[in-house]
Amino acid sequence: MSILDSVLKAFVGDKKKKDLKLLQPIVNSVSAFEAEIGALSLDQLRAKTAEFKAKIAEANKAIDEQIAQLLQQAENTEDIDQREDIYEQ
Question: What number of CA atoms fall less than 13 Å from residue 87's CA on the CB side?
């Protein structure tokens, strides 16, 4: 099998090397981010956490409003089938 493997590597290339070449930019960006975060103090990390929570809340704001509207519609409707459809949404 080693002869077959070497022939395949000659024509196709080494899968391991291709995977490493593909993943290396991702590893580099994660390493840079790790260095950036590692340089922060505990208070700065807490501030980052609050910043991330605010970004998440802002991103989910439209969805939360839609959920609130659907819940209000479900409470105001008498028809059980419509209510079930609203809850499925």
Answer: 10
Q: Is the pLDDT of residue 1 over 70?
A: no
The predicted model scores a pTM of 0.48
| DSSP assigned state of 40 | S
Q: What is the pLDDT of residue 7?
A: 73
Burial of 77 (0-12, 13-18, 19+ CB in 10 A): middle
> What does each C-alpha distance from 56 to 33, 34, 52, 61, 64 come to in angstroms?
19, 21, 6, 8, 12
pLDDT at 51 over 90: yes
Residue 13 gets the label, from left (phi > 0), alpha (psi -120 to 50) or beta, of left
